[in-house]
Amino acid sequence: xxxxxxxxxxxxxxxxxxxxxxxxxxxxxxxxxxxxxxxxxxxxxxxxxxxxxxxxxxxxxxxxxxxxxxxxxxxxxxxxxxxxxxxxxxxxxxxxxxxxxxxxxxxxxxxxxxxxxxxxxxxxxxxxxxxxxxxxxxxxxxxxxxxxxxxxxxxxxxxxxxxxxxxxxxxxxxxxxxxxxxxxxxxxxxxxxxxxx
Length: 197
Prior knowledge:
Elements: H1 2-17, H2 20-31, E1 35-39, H3 43-48, E2 57-65, E3 76-85, E4 88-102, E5 105-110, E6 118-120, E7 125-127, E8 131-138, E9 143-150, H4 157-163, E10 173-175, E11 181-184, H5 185-195
Antiparallel strand pairs: 1-2, 1-9, 2-3, 3-4, 4-5, 4-11, 5-6, 6-8, 7-8, 8-9, 10-11
């Protein structure tokens, strides 16, 4: 019995002595090893507007590593997000972003100021090599549930090529001034409306 208590105590001590840096590095390693695709629940209506009530949409996130530290770890970087119509992938919104993991919290800062930055608090999500799910918040504290799977490969070039055509917006297309985001269809209309506020 003493051995059992000793081992239980040793395991608890190990858990409590793990630093937040270690946790941040582990979370970042999961983030950068995949393309995370799935549903963001009420995000589409709250983020893009009431016209997104009638449809089904998906989101894909890609987290790229930034600068590795001297021990080969990374806890921040850049990334990309695509939101698209489940039945017509030509209708989409795409933006680049910067991200960081700090004290277990994940922060996403979009390069296009028209998009709302978000945070994912450490107690409100779970992540593994294959699944990332939980609740995220924008800076107005609106909550969005998400459930994403690691799909491995995703063709980001279709969005990046459109973003490179900055300054070529028309009625059905939105391209940000700095080329960091692009949108088509109803996503373009929503972004133009947000940009005019």
